[in-house]
Amino acid sequence: MQMRQSFIQLCLVSALSTSHLLQAAPFDTAPAAVTAAQSAYEIGKQAALDKNWSLALKELKKAEAAEPNNADVHNMLGYTYRWQGQLELAFQHYRRSLELNPNHRGTHEYMGKAFLMNKQPEEAQKLLANLEKICGKSCPEYKSLEIAITNYKPQ
């Protein structure tokens, strides 16, 4: 009896510890397409963070083709274009991201930084105010944009 209880407890612990694997993905396509879209997004995002712009654009455009209504994909496309100095394209993707998810914290932060690059600190300040409403002054996106605005010097 004791052995059976231990076995049942082990099964429950195992099931609970792997339940996160069953959570739905942010993509709403068929499972095979989800895997391809998620993979392209993850590769593109990491490439962007590594400043490998050509790979980032290649993979993020694949993700966009598979999931054109994914705010995360548009946010990272905006990020990639912003870092390449292509602000018009960056703003297009940031706007699309916010159309899809008006509370996307990362987009508010990154778009605010793009506004600073575009010498529009008042627009960045508006996005900072939005972030305060969305997540408060202690969230990382708020803090990051606040620092960028504080350190902003028009050139």
Span of the ends, CA to CA: 76 Å
Largest sheet features? none
CATH class: Mainly Alpha
* Helix residue percentage: over 70%
Global structural class = mainly alpha
Second CATH tier, the architecture? Alpha Horseshoe
Shape: globular
**Could you state the CATH homologous superfamily?**
Tetratricopeptide repeat domain
Enumerate how many helices there are, as a single number: 8
Task: Report the order of strands and helices.
Answer: HHHHHHHH
* Number of domains as seen in the coordinates: 1
Average the pLDDT over all residues and give the rounded result. Answer: 85
Question: How does this structure look, described?
Answer:
The protein is mainly α and 155 residues long. It has one domain (31-150): Tetratricopeptide repeat domain (Serine Threonine Protein Phosphatase 5, Tetratricopeptide repeat), CATH 1.25.40.10. The protein has helices at residues 2-17, 31-49, 53-66, 71-83, 87-100, 105-117, 121-135, 140-150. The relative contact order is 0.08. Mean pLDDT is 85; it is low at 3-29.
